[in-house]
Amino acid sequence: MGAIVAVVHREEKTAASTVLAMLKELSHRGKDVYAIASADDQTLSGSIEQLNSEKIRSNIVLGYIFSKTLPNGTQQLYQTDNFILAFEGRTYPPSKIVEELLPNPERTAEEIIKNCDGAYVFAVVTTDSLIVGRDTLGLAPLYFARNQSFVAFASERKALWKLGLRAAESFPPGNIAVVKKDAGTSFKRVKAIAQPPLKPLKMDSAAEQLQKLLLQSIKARVSDVKEVAVAFSGGLDSGLVAFLAKKCRVEVELITVGLENMPETRHAEDAAKALALPIHVKTYTVNDVKKALPRVFWLIEEPNIMQASIAIPLYWTAEQTKTRGFNVLLAGQGADELFGGYHRYLAIYAKNGAEVLQKILFYDVARCYAMNFQRDNQTCAFHNVELRLPFADLRLVNFALSLPLSLKIESATDMLRKRVLRQAAENMGMPMMITQKTKKAVQYATGVDKALRKLAEREGLNPADYVRKVFREVYPDVKLE
Fold first, then answer.
1. Which mean pLDDT values do the consecutive 10-residue runs of the chain (481 residues) have?
2. Cα 108 to Cα 274: distance, rounded to the nearest angstrom
3. Quick one: which of 116, 207, 363, 465 is 20 to 30 A from 479 by CA?
4. DSSP code for 302
5. Given 189, 217, 245, which residue is the final one in a domain?
6. How many C-beta neighbours within 10 Å does residue 294 have?
7. How far is CA 409 from its chain centroid?
8. Which of 27, 28, 33, 36 is nearest to 7 (CA)?
9. Domain range for residue 37?
10. Are residues 62 and 125 in contact, defined by beta-carbon separation less than 8 angstroms?
11. Among residues 189, 222, 252, which one ends one of the domains?
12. What pTM, to 2 d.p., does this model score?
């Protein structure tokens, strides 16, 4: 776990001081190694204050932060005769492609994306160019911005905002960007998800194949750990993740958070008992929501009430995960987009039909990086917790996208939805109290959405104005749209 930043200045001057300022903004993402590098040289330190930026003389510079999430973790900063590559993240299964560097740095960058499934970003610095890349699903956050003087990339927007670059955009997943010495920039799509042809599968066959893919994905994501925490609601998605993690013979502890006296908390406890897994429950108050909101806004960098009401429970979950002594957190994000879990899909189905809804499901999957993944990574990274998402596995994603809508949603009145996923869970012997649980979004199940609205009412504001007010207090110089 860590961060990457990179800068290409148009002028012939060092970019190292700029990179150092950006790294300081992201120091919360790591604690073990800090580095600044050009094609010719690098400086590393265990303290960001001791980094010697004056040693690096180039207008093309990258910065790197590494935190040892696991005991066997090592920093991934590689140097060859003609370039330096910084890799931040993880591949499933672990790959040696990065170590087996090719002579051509742009080809190296493309080969990483073509061959590696996982959550990662990387930057390659040569004497006359910078090459930056992001994983195919966009599980690891990465942003970019530019002005007349330079082009910059960073794992979080706040590092770009520090430079006065307000129009920070999310880096397109599965792409590389090549920035030349004069800061001319070109993007190249290497590997992005696409809508595959629909497979005419029947429910039994589809559920059987899905079971295998789910188990393979979980195995890949727990193969290097002995224990994991699971963000647990007692619903289908988190229940499947917990059930299969247990099958992989790792120690599993379920983490459930919510406001006091929420009925969903009791259901989670009953579901944990049915799975024979230990559960840690932590309850909060409206004042706890108020206390967490500024920090969460600082992390997710967006004044949106829905995003905040999702991020706050995850912030608490990651905090409890770390307090309980776990470094890796599994969660079920991505399942609702893949299998049609959201209630809003029914209205689309009723109004526009199955063909339109099929296209919208694909669009939502393709946009998960912007709507979910980067928010969740940034929230967990603050607690030095590595978030791993079994449903965001490339083979599983491609298979789910190939399934006809009828295997996910039976009709415009289907209150359960995610039919093939429920069938797979039942086939594996999961308790019906989990497999038949209706979807309730985390912001409502935990009570956080209601708490935010209550806080807004206390100040005589509507919810949107309240969250914008708090966000302005956190980021007074960021212009709101």
1. 93 85 95 91 89 87 91 83 90 78 83 94 94 98 93 97 92 96 89 95 98 97 96 97 97 97 96 98 98 98 96 98 97 98 96 96 98 98 97 98 97 96 97 95 95 97 96 89 62
2. 48
3. 363
4. -
5. 189
6. 13
7. 26
8. 36
9. 2-189
10. yes
11. 189
12. 0.96
